[in-house]
Design brief:
Number of helices: 4
Number of strands: 11
Largest sheet: 6 strands, antiparallel
Shape: globular
Structural class: alpha+beta
Length: 189
């Protein structure tokens, strides 16, 4: 198990992506970030920029933890992100820390970004610093290189029974839904 301790000084602004290999790493920041980008672990989970001075909103009701948050992190004191996390250090100065394998997590603990693979295996992490659109585009390109790219240039419009109907579904409901959407431009039903 390799643990790396890094400091922001090693990653000047507008750096190319730097890939490191470790099962976990800690990246020290010189001051608390202005914002923290949190990526949800599944499509129902919150993905947004957050104010790091505000604590995470815990999901205390056990019946909602499975649906709305990865239960392991539902009551954590720090913001935890799935696969990728980013901090805004200054205007147009974003530092992204992203997993290049499955089971990666990024946690903001004060002025430290902690990254780890839940299964404790050693794999690659990418650290990118620059403007917001640029760092996310570089991360996306690295993921496409590793995992492949979709055949769609633009994300297709999808209708999904899970999001529209959740568990209240049967053949008649799906058939009625299919007929009621009529000429809506869905590519995938």
């Amino acid at each position: 198990m390799t643990i790396l301790n890094l400091h922001l000084d090693s990653f000047p602004q507008e750096t190319d992506s730097q890939i490191v290999t470790a099962s976990s790493l800690q990246l020290s920041l010189p001051q608390p970030p202005k914002r923290f980008f949190r990526h949800g672990w599944q499509s129902w989970t919150l993905t947004t920029w957050l104010d790091p001075s505000e604590p995470p909103c815990p999901i205390s009701a056990p019946k909602f933890r499975q649906k709305d948050e990865d239960p392991v992190y539902a009551l954590t004191k720090n913001h935890v992100s799935a696969w990728v996390g980013a901090v805004e250090l200054n205007d147009d100065d974003i530092l992204l820390l992203g997993a290049l394998d499955l089971s990666g997590r990024v946690e903001l603990d004060g002025t430290t970004l902690k990254a780890f693979y839940e299964d404790e295996h050693e794999s690659q992490w990418v650290i990118i610093r620059g403007k917001e659109d640029d760092v996310f585009a570089k991360y996306t390109a690295l993921l496409e290189t590793k995992f492949g790219k979709t055949r769609y240039e633009k994300a297709p419009r999808v209708w999904c029974s899970w999001y529209s109907l959740y568990k209240w579904i049967n053949e008649d409901v799906v058939t009625n839904s299919l007929h009621s959407i009529g000429d809506m431009p869905f590519v995938v039903f």
